[in-house]
Amino acid sequence: MPRQSFLADEPWDDDRDDLKIRTRVFDRPRGAMLGGSLHELLPGSTGFWLHFHHGCEEMFFVLSGHPTLRREDGEERLSPGDVVFCPEGREGTHTFTNPTDEPARILSVSAGRYPDVVAYPEHGHAWVATRDPDREPDGDDSGIIARFPYPPVEP
Known about the structure:
By secondary structure, the protein is mainly β. Helix content is 0%, strand content 46%.
């Protein structure tokens, strides 16, 4: 694997103007469980949707700025050097916003496996993926990537 840097300002892999978030995803070998990305929340960023995973746990390292960690039970302002651990399941529900006038950078490290279910409790749905949706399928197995109501509806 080539060396990668989270200090460089370019390139950004994803620039979400609507959310005021730029993201750099770090390459990882196929089948690896550890992954990482750098998120820059621009001033006024509302963040990603509040969510949690079944199949992945995450750690977030605040590198700069003062983002706000939002969970189902409240919010907490963070500072450079703070580390947040989000376990699998509802206990790990999270998102980050940036209500300040300065950018905030967060290094994200995740350890996951497939299938992964990502639930969005405020929006009433979840996604299931049996393979990494950002990679091409292996051979004939295209995997399953599907959306369903959350919590699941009883038959």
